[in-house]
User: Fold this.
Amino acid sequence: MNKRYQVAGKALGSEVVLTLITENSDVADDTFKVLWEKITHFEAQFSRFQPTSELSLFNQKSGSWQKVSSEFLSILHCTQIFSQETTGLYNPFILPALQQAGYQGSWPHTSEVILSTDYTNRHIFPPNALKIENGEVYIPEGAALDLGGIGKGFLLDLLGTYLEGTIENYWLSLGGDILCKGTDINNAPWAINVQNAQGEILPFQIINTNKKSFGIATSGVTKRKGKHNNKAWHHIIDPKTGLPSETDVSIATVCAPSAVAADIHAKCLVIRGSSQAEKYLKQHAIQSALLQIKTNDPSQQIFAYGPDIVKKI
Amino acid sequence: MKNFLVTETTFLTPDIFLLTLRAERERDCFIHIPGQYAAIGFQVNGRPTPMRCFSIVNAPNNTGIIQFAIKVSGSFTHTATYLQKGNKVKVQGPFGEFVVNKQFDRNVVMLAGGIGITPFMSMLRNAASTQSPIHFTLLYSCQNQAAIPFFDELIKLEQQNQNFSVQFYITNGSVAAASPAHLYEGRIDPLAIAAATPKHPNAYTYFICGPNGFMNSVQEILRSRGVYPDNIVSEAFTQGASGRAVINSQNIPKLIYKLTSAAIVLGIGFIMTLDLMRAVPKIMAAETTQASQVTEVQTTATPASTSISSTLTPTATPYVQNYTYQQPVTSVS
Assistant:
């Protein structure tokens, strides 16, 4: 008989919850160990807060062609694809602007600055400044890559790939970004709750009856924010201005066939704002989305789009 | 060995012909998996030819009909062009693991070079007739536009099957001005593969079939994109006296017998080793800590559908087991 197994812990600067449905406790046990190993390995490899991560070492040698690992290449190709798809709205070079705005140390210890990972004297470059040839990668001198906008989604898809063929029903959450597949033990589709800025559950759920895996990501200006030099900042940088985006969308939740697509499009929707949201959703064939909008009109505070957003009765 | 009769030979391009065979008796019929190949041989002047392997191009069926698209490139294939309706052909097979796994392969990228298109034709015809939910993208490299076999059919399959798209790359010639939008000049390069795989590279399974030079170049591109080796399935395709294309028909039963025996012995050994590797650390841990007693917990600390069943073994991992089920919540990350 199928049972539900769940573990939780801290990684990637956020809470990680892994839930598997399987008949065998040994399988669950072994799978959790491997998933966790992959998560910690990914963090060690791509955290911008760790001076010895592959990403930090790469950023330190900007301006030269560098040989990188196949995992790094894979994620960089992914950044290129989404930069093109979002016509530059997703830009992996925003790190200097993020740090200049005030987001420096690993959240929530924002005062903790390690000099070797300080890029406040560098600049934003256009996405096409990233060059990949014959397994080597180049970014211009004065540029720095940040995989924060793509990392959790990318990692979730990797974990999903690992589970294929062994676990058919699961949901994995990396700090609120989720990858789901299949159903719960009662064969009901997974019903994902959505939080508002205050951490309360909204009267909407995301329910996807598709048997394939799908990703859900939420992004917004209500977390990872603060004050720096008496100016308020948040971590969603508009690449066009190089500043925290001025937007009326406080939180955007996106449901997409992959977690990485959901992750990127949620951030882009915040940057685009509510007036451009519907156009953006159609343009990128996003299946479902839920926007929480800053407005005094209560009837306009929630924008629900697509078949997977279900109002709780 | 199965007996088939030639029903038709038709030239698809100046140097590729389609050989259609029909099973002589009902017991000679077989059903292949799309992507598999079979060995064929026939008699010339009363003497049997060696068996040669070719991919089956038609979709699986129970009519006893099989088809091969064969490039004329040596004495065997040249002689085969003289086969006439009613001639007997010996068939051995089907063989091969170059097949789509319906459970794991959801997004399939097919990379074909020249005559390497043949296994993909069977897969694509089968996908269209069974309305397969698997997404197929075919990148097909050919020397020139006139050398593309199945061109019209591939365009038609794309129109019929919304889960299939095709792009042709012409490596040694120009593309006619009035050609459909699917034709490109040049080789399959990293940009072409990147454009065909908009999700991250490891979300796809890559099937490669074609001449060795083509396969090496495509595999290098995939490696540089960070594609895991497990996500690449390849089939060397050489028609001639090298590689897997020639099978001595006398040795086939022996070969199968030997391979099966070896597989059984290796399989048993592997399973025993695996069991041992899993069992020993657990026994040792149980003896040393006495803390690994497996417990089954059923808690209903919170109402309706929030209980969680568990028989997980306590471990020294950096995560904790949740005994009260935590519902999935998406929040600002």
Q: What stands out?
A: The helical segments of chain A are 25-46, 54-60, 70-85, 95-101, 151-163, 259-272, 277-283. The longest strand of chain A covers residues 3-11. Chain A touches chain B through 79 residues (CB under 8 Å). Residues 106-113 of chain A have pLDDT under 50 and may be disordered.
